[in-house]
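Q: My collaborator sent me two sequences in one message, no labels, and asked for predicted structures for both. Can we handle them in order? The first one she listed is below.
A: Yes, handling them in the order given. First sequence, followed by its structure tokens:
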Amino acid sequence: MTAARPERKYHARPAPPRIVVGIDTSVASTAALRWAAAQAAALHAQIIAVHAWQPATCQLAPYAHVPAHPTPGEERRYAEQLLDHVVRGALGERPPVPVRTVVAEGPAVAVLLEHARTALLLALGHRPHAGTAAPAVGAVARGCLSAATVPVVSIPADPGPHRRTAHAAHAALRAG
């Protein structure tokens, strides 16, 4: 007869809370990333910086002439480089909080909502409406606001000295 072993209980460490940030080439998304970093530090959370991309030819009519475009692999690499440049430009080489970058193929709203499903919140930038200082709610923000299962925070473009981070990253990558 063998003695029964006591039952061991293993407790999985809960995943840290996450703040998802939608990243594009706008100054406003850089401001959203900086805002999210401050919130993540206060909440002991990590940032998931998400950039959605779609092949350049996906929006062409089937009969349209397709000029020489980068391959989907090249477009994905470009998207990865863009996201890396924006994150480093906004938060530096050593971000103050854990940051995970995600480049996903698909429509921006669907990609952002999928990654934000279990997050604390989704942070998006917003830009002034052309010709006014009033913020505009773009199609991506509208789609996320109408279907998100988590709070969505809209952050205005940062008027500070690093205002051009996203545009500079985009221009640098395009140049070579």
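Q: And the one she listed second?
A: Here it is, processed independently of the first:
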Amino acid sequence: MGCNANILENCFLKLKLEHSRFNSVALGEAIVTEHPSAGGLNWTIVCFPRGCKSSNGEYVSLAIGSQDKSRKAAMKVVFHVFVMGRDGTPSPSHAKGSIQVIITYKPDGTEPVMRFLDKFMKRSELESDYLIDGCITFLCVITILPDDRSISVPASDLGNHLDNLLDCTDGSDVSFLVGGETFRAHRAVLAARSPVFKAQLLGSMAVAKMDRITLHDIQPATFRALLRFIYTDALPADNVLDSCSSTIELLQHLLAAADMYHLDRLKLLCAQKLSDRVSVANVATMLGCAETHNCPELKGRCIEFFMVERNFKKVVLTEGYLRLMQRVDPLAVNNAFTEETDVPLTPRSVASKQAITITLKTATGTDTRALNTSILSCSGGELTAKVSPYRGTEEPFAHGLEKVTEKRRACQAAIMLDSCFTTFKLDYAGTKNLAVGAVICSDEISAGGHLWRLRCFPHGYSTDDHGAYLAFFLQLVSDSKNVKAIFDVALMGRDGLPSPMHTKRLMKEYSKASESWGFRCFMKRSILEQSSYLTDGYALLMFGVIVLPDNPRHNPVTVPPSDIRNHLGHLLDCTDGSDVSFSIAGETFHAHRSVLAARSPVFKAQLLGSMADANMSCITLHDIQPTTFKTLLRFIYTDTLPGDHEFGTSSSATIELLQNLLEAADMYHLERLKLVCAHKLWEHVSTDTVAAMLNFAELHNCPELKNACIDFFLVEENLKKAVLTEGYMRLMQSSPSIIDEIRERIGN
């Protein structure tokens, strides 16, 4: 027996604040960071070091809000905050969550309200117990909960579609010969992702006219991983990387290739993976790689490693260190050694000081006076932090932000980390006859570069518990070692929010694959059965997996979010390399066969198969409007729809465009677009529109929207009003079978 895990949108960031600035902020003033993204909105996390009002001046207050005006409906949000302890891990005694936060908006949708953790922690305790190297660090998690009435939309499948395109090679128009191996690819995808490939394949260079290109300065394994990243924006999982004969060598070669092809995000991903693998044996080699290929993030991590005395004493005995020293100009070393420097050198002996000066000199390629800036600034990506006077909890959050735009403070490191939150719908009634120890497993989920599985024991983990408890465990599936993770479990109430009384958390280190940690006695079955948490025999739970960095004391390399959507969107806008066009009501739209074929099986048959359209450079379409096709193309390339403000000024215009788009999605078998449209149409359902929407859903084979509309009818108050509308009269005449279905559902 299994159960699907519905992935929730979330973001998780590490917010590091310098104590000197933290301590200088006055009562009511805030340190503001912006803008992590989750649920389609940009969020702002606000820290009040001396409280947000006079009544809590001895406390540190934290708050969350959004000034994004693109969404006018209410949204349920879980905001968790952890404070990092001296051991570099989150403190279990200071992990608080505003787990029933609802971000609400005024009717005009203009001023979102900020929600607070007013008394997160006493400032005196925070400063005495959690001040580490002059900084205080918070881990913040924002999780978007599903709307009870909303239609679920799966995660983006753009990467999967392009991944399949690469594997099947349909429509490939260029190949590469690398070390005797042939790799087929698509010019449009390569050009969209890399400016170097764009110049080579679509420009005036000789290779632009070649169907087969031979590459000499790259290995097959490296080029294979490079292509996979270009198509999916992801590296292989850690267990796949670790199965390679030389993971570090592959990552270094991949970083070099990313530098050569100007793939900046891949470069940072490689730097992140390499940073986690820095050791005495390889740090000198990594430092040389970082310097050669202009990677300050990896260079900073290597220098940080060198500055630890016990590491330094071992590194100087390695072959890699000797090779590194051979690159240094002796005269430059002597000059560097005699100059004063502000860098705090840990090794005390003169020999150690001279040797580490050589190392730093080699790494930076500049005089040591500049090292204080160049070394200490290698802290990864940062978000702007500003100070804002903010008074009370009733002021609209947008007003607070307006006051801080001209009062910037020094940047505080805010580093995005990896987490995954899911909902798990347990068929509790269906588990009645299971034995003690019987397990229900979720689909695999990904967090921190590792695969995980949720394991539920409806009648308990072992006979020692006498079948009285529900048990939940988190299992590490990947072949990984020493992975530290936080595991959250929360029972969801009928209001769609986590229950404070039935929420548990643990933090464990997984030493090997298949290891499980969790809660043997999460909740008594008898309590669940007598509670309101069961709905039609089902229980809904939320699980969270937060993977902590291997070495929490150093700043991890910050990798920005995937930019594949932006790259493909730009490809659509600039039309570089387009090989097909569509004529619709006098308007022409340029596109790329490979992208269309990857995303739609209908386009694949038309453009790459044996149909007549496959040989046509311009195709005329009649049964679709230009605006609809333009939006359809944008979704195909970016997997997103325009913002609500771009759909139209009136509700009727928005509904019409969404219905036309859903119809087109049905025609071209774009299942995710169909669900996105259904989700947005559902937001416009009312007693006046539900009958027409139900009829539309039936005509265009959208069971999700249809079932939601029928559920709307089942509410007595809605039914009494909806049956009096013209839409309901037309529904009775055109679709009597739907009326019968509504009657049957009401009867049940």
